Amino acid sequence: MKIGELAAASATPIETIRFYEREGLLPEPARSQGNFRLYEAPHLERLQFIRHCRGLDMSLDEVRVLLKFKDAPGDDCGDVNALLDEHVGHVARRIKELRALERQLRDLRQRCGSSRPTQACGILAGLDEAAQEPNSGKRAARSHLRSVHVR
């Protein structure tokens, strides 16, 4: 199948497929005489595995490790267990961070109970106050992560 067909079959954007190839997560496909990429069923299966792991918020490095084990079915899976245990820990920490973020946002929301002119808005005043605190930018960036962890 061509890349468009693989993209449709896996519900994955073409650019993401190319990215996974550049990252070495997907093996290079064969090429047609017209230099089109030609994918086979194993590419689709591997891509679906990658996408599922990414849906579990696993990093590319974690997916890479899992793929190495998947490619060596005779190896011991103890390291796979350890990787998943570590990932569960990351998720637990992220949940804790998100709960703290929710409390912070709810506290901020309590500062303005009704509609009023923006110059009297308690939310905007609270955001201004917090922004003036030393290291507020570093703390905000650290406390509002875009993913469970970075690898």
Summarize it.
By secondary structure, the protein is mainly α. It has a domain at 3-55: Multidrug-efflux Transporter Regulator, Chain: A, Domain 2 (Orthogonal Bundle), CATH 1.10.1660.10. Helices cover 62% and strands 3% of the residues.
Provide tags for this entry.
151 residues, mainly alpha, Multidrug-efflux Transporter Regulator, Chain: A, Domain 2, two-stranded antiparallel ribbon, 7 helices, 3% strand, elongated
Could you explain how this protein is built, in words?
By secondary structure, the protein is mainly alpha-helical. The protein has a domain at 3-55: Orthogonal Bundle (Multidrug-efflux Transporter Regulator, Chain: A, Domain 2). Helices cover 62% and strands 3% of the residues. It is built from seven helices and two strands, in the order ααββααααα. It has helices spanning 3-10, 14-22, 41-55, 60-70, 78-109, 122-132, 136-143; strands spanning 30-31, 37-38. Strand 1 (30-31) and strand 2 (37-38) form a beta hairpin. The relative contact order is 0.09.
